Amino acid sequence: MKCPKCGRELIQSEKNPEYWLCFTCKQKYKKKRQTYSNIPEKEVRAAGEAKVKRRYSQMLEAEEQSKKKKRSKKSSKNDIDNYDDGGSIVPLVVLGVLIIIVAALIAYMYFK
Ligand SMILES: [Zn+2]
């Protein structure tokens, strides 16, 4: 059984099993359909379903985007042209090596 307002699955009340609860709308419904027949059920349900579907598709989109981000981050590590994130460590390593070479040269010249 689904909530006629938001289209989410209703949860049966533990205190009173003939009532079904929607925690989103803070509503309770009797199991018999007649209790909410005064509501324009079909339209409201369609609107609710559309809302849920839109939210769901947004969720999927966000997930897809985060996947794409992860994928592009991964591929950028192999990309030589990209110094934005993964590549930023390379100049530091080069600098370190240069310092060692210079230090070695100075030591070599000093002890010569
Ligand atoms: Zn609801």
Write the layout of secondary structure elements.
Elements lengths: L10 E2 L6 E4 L4 E4 L10 H38 L10 H23 L1
Antiparallel strand pairs: 1-2, 2-3
Zinc ion (ZN) binds next to loops.
Can you walk me through this structure?
Keywords: Membrane, Transmembrane, Transmembrane helix. The chain crosses the membrane at residues 89-111. Residues 60-87 are annotated as: Disordered. The model has no long low-confidence stretch (mean pLDDT 81). A 3-stranded antiparallel beta sheet has the order 1-2-3, with no helix packed on it. It is 54% helix and 9% strand. The chain has helices at 41-78, 89-111, and strands spanning 11-12, 19-22, 27-30. The longest helix is centred in the middle third of the chain and has 38 residues, at 41-78. The protein is mainly alpha-helical and 112 residues long. A hairpin with a 4-residue loop joins β2 (19-22) and β3 (27-30). It is built from 2 helices and 3 strands; from the N terminus they run βββαα. It folds into 2 domains: 1-78, no CATH class; 88-112. It binds zinc ion.
Distance, first to last CA: 90 Å
Question: What's the structural domain tally?
Answer: 2
Helix content percent band: 40-55%
Query: Which strand-content bin applies to the residues?
Result: 5-15%
Q: Going across the major beta sheet, what is the strand order?
A: 1-2-3
Q: In terms of structural class, how would the helical and strand content be classed? A: mainly alpha
Rg estimate, integer Å: 32 Å
Largest sheet: 3 strands, antiparallel
How are helices and strands ordered from N to C?
Answer: EEEHH
Transmembrane segments: 89-111
Keywords: Membrane, Transmembrane, Transmembrane helix
Region (Disordered): 60-87
